[in-house]
């Protein structure tokens, strides 16, 4: 596991394929980082599937309403829901969408991000300044690379748990 410099702004996601450690970027996107920590601390992300996984592009998850395989799961609707919290305003920056960065998923409305996010498999610079970047994988990208592909995958992988490192 990578060295954790700031446990309060580090997320640990447990997948079947291993642990993924994400360093959040609160100086770049404070509202998105706070939302992820709030939902992680409530357990909202535990059991949520990766509903949209495109080889060479990204793995998307975080639909806490329809994507939780342990509660009210509806695979065909996964990706259409969010949390009960209000949507977030865009926090675009010059941070590029490089391999391993965390981006906020949203609808066409730039201010519609809520709970869903994606991890880039590749450098996806065409997304720069259009989707909020608010973290980067500092270890465990090999586990991300193993996530089952599909839109949605027939048997999707899920986040077994998501924790803030300060609480782990």
TrEMBL record:
It catalyses: [protein]-peptidylproline (omega=180) = [protein]-peptidylproline (omega=0). CDD domains: cyclophilin. Signal peptide: none annotated. Keywords: Isomerase, Rotamase. Its EC number is 5.2.1.8. Pfam families: Pro_isomerase (PF00160). This is Peptidyl-prolyl cis-trans isomerase. It comes from Celeribacter persicus.
């Amino acid at each position: 596991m990578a060295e954790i410099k700031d446990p309060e702004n580090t997320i640990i996601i447990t997948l079947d394929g291993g642990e993924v450690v994400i360093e959040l970027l609160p100086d770049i996107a404070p509202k998105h980082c706070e939302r992820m920590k709030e939902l992680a601390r409530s357990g909202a992300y535990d059991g949520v599937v990766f509903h949209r996984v495109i080889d060479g592009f990204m793995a998307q998850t975080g639909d806490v309403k329809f994507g939780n395989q342990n509660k009210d799961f509806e695979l065909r609707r996964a990706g259409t829901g969010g949390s009960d919290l209000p949507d977030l305003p865009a926090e675009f920056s010059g941070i590029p969408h490089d391999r391993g960065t965390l981006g906020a998923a949203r609808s066409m409305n730039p201010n519609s991000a809520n709970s869903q996010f994606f991890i880039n498999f590749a450098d996806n610079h065409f997304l720069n300044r259009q989707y909020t970047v608010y973290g980067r994988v500092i270890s465990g990208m090999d586990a991300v690379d193993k996530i089952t592909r599909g839109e949605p995958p027939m048997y999707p992988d899920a986040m077994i748990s998501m924790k803030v490192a300060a609480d782990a």
